[in-house]
Design goal:
By secondary structure, the chain is an alpha/beta fold. It has one domain: 3-Layer(aba) Sandwich (Rossmann fold), CATH 3.40.50. The protein has nine helices and 13 strands. The strands form three sheets. It has a nine-stranded mixed sheet, sandwiched between helices. Strands 6-7 form a two-stranded antiparallel sheet. It has a two-stranded antiparallel ribbon with strand order 9-10. The longest helix is centred in the first third of the chain and has 18 residues. The protein is globular, with a radius of gyration of 20 Å. The chain binds S-adenosylmethionine. S-adenosylmethionine binds next to helix 1 and strand 13.
Length: 294
């Protein structure tokens, strides 16, 4: 194995063992040596989607077979670091004109891992008042979340991406109620009164809009991020108590690092671009300066 690079930034988890470590390195080459064999409880990441996005250091356009071979390299590197009972959460989206892209990526990863859950990250949604029912108390039809207009006479607006949860055998226990939702329907009241926690499973549709920002260059200086709540929910679903180390091979400006910091969990993240990592380190420090959530 190649020698592991030193961290670009290392922020200790004050009062707890471990740190949030960020590496300016090619993850496929550096991650196995840096993280070690079967050390990662959770790998949560979003790779470049090969759509020509203008990243700082990475050229996001190559022939599809070459791209999928590269995804195969990611799969092999994750195979080295993922614990026996670990979860690999892979976020991928595809434009309406290329709907097979996420499935091609998932198929490539599925050559080694078992696809345990398919989650739909919903970025925007319209809910008709009538469909929500009287108990929801809506005053009008709702349309909430991030909406990027698409001019097309062929395609509907793409409002979601996938999060594929892979594991080694498809049998990793999950903590569904860690991200559960309260029962809403009065007919379920008797059932939830009997339950240990008055919650039901959230299911596989996760509505997570982007936080509203004022100035893109200052508030979100990266072309393709996910909100920290996405990796946060993934780790909580895997089980915080069973998580020793969280890893993100494509950490960007650090959403997954912020999530690990919020949970006070050790973390290793990689990116080719030191400018993104500088932002990520600042976000992690800001997160750790806040009191730990209860
Ligand atoms: C989709 S973005 C991830 C964004 C991240 N989830 C966030 O919220 O900020 C993909 C990232 O992968 C990085 N990248 C591309 N190839 C890489 C490689 N071989 N090793 C490490 N990082 C790489 C790019 O610089 C980019 O920041």
């Amino acid at each position: 194995m190649p020698r592991a690079p030193p961290p670009f930034a290392r922020v200790p988890l004050a009062g707890r063992p471990g740190a949030i470590s960020l590496y300016a390195a090619d993850a496929l080459a550096a991650m196995p040596a840096r993280v070690g064999r079967h050390r990662a409880s959770v790998v949560v990441t979003s790779p470049p989607y090969n759509l020509g996005v203008a990243y700082g250091r990475y050229r996001d356009r190559r022939p599809r077979p070459e791209y999928l071979a590269w995804i195969g390299g990611l799969r092999d590197a994750v195979d080295v670091v993922l614990a026996d009972r670990g979860s690999f959460f892979l976020n991928v989206g595809g434009p309406p004109r290329d709907p097979w892209l996420p499935f091609d990526v998932a198929r490539t990863v599925g050559e080694r891992f078992v696809l345990q859950n398919v989650i739909h990250w919903v970025k925007s949604i319209a809910i008709d008042r009538a469909a929500a029912g009287r108990s929801a108390g809506l005053a009008r039809d709702l349309a909430v979340g991030h909406y990027k207009p698409l001019v097309s006479d062929r395609y509907v607006h793409g409002a979601h991406e996938y999060v594929f949860q892979f594991s080694r055998r498809g049998d990793v226990p999950i903590d569904r109620l860690a991200i559960g939702v309260p029962y809403q329907d009065p007919s379920n009241v008797a059932r939830w009164r009997r339950a240990a926690r008055p919650l039901r499973c959230r299911g596989n549709t996760w509505f997570l809009p982007y936080p509203t920002i004022r100035e893109r260059a200052r508030d979100r200086p990266h072309p393709a991020t996910f909100p920290p709540e996405l990796p946060l929910w993934c780790v909580r679903l895997h089980g915080v108590g069973r998580t020793r180390l969280v890893v993100d091979p494509f950490v960007g400006i650090g959403a997954s690092a912020v999530a690990a910091a919020r949970l006070r969990l050790p973390f290793a993240g990689f990116d080719l671009d030191p400018e993104y990592l500088t932002v990520a380190a600042a976000r992690v420090r800001a997160e750790l300066a806040r009191p730990a959530p209860a």
